[in-house]
Design goal:
92 residues; mainly alpha; 70% helix
C-alpha cells in the first residue's frame, strides 16, 4: 500500500472542508449582532447583542483564519504544480 502524505488530494480536501467549516463558524456563531445606539442596558442584557467592536473575532481571524488560509493556498498550489509536472513528464 502506498503511504499517504499530507500532499494527497484527499487530505487537502479534508483540510479545505475544515477551513470552510471554520469560516462558517467564525462569521455566524462568533459574530453576535450589534446593539442599536438607542438600547438601554436592560435591553442590551436581554437582547444578547454586543456594544462596540468584537475584538475576539478580529484576533481569531488574524491568528487562526488568515494563517490557515495561507497554508491551504500553499498546499493547493504545490499540489497543482506537482500535477502539472507529472503531466509534462508523462508526455515526454
Amino acid at each position: 500500500m502506498a503511504k499517504k502524505s499530507l500532499m494527497s488530494r484527499n487530505n487537502i480536501l479534508m483540510l479545505t472542508s475544515v477551513w470552510l467549516a471554520l469560516t462558517v463558524f467564525t462569521f455566524t456563531i462568533m459574530n453576535p449582532p450589534q446593539c442599536p445606539d438607542s438600547y438601554t442596558q436592560a435591553q442590551i442584557d436581554s437582547a444578547n447583542c454586543i456594544v462596540g467592536a468584537n475584538i475576539g473575532l478580529g484576533i481569531f481571524i488574524m491568528f487562526i483564519f488568515v494563517p490557515l488560509s495561507v497554508i491551504l493556498i500553499g498546499l493547493w498550489s504545490i499540489y497543482i504544480l506537482r500535477l502539472k509536472q507529472n503531466k509534462q513528464t508523462d508526455k515526454k
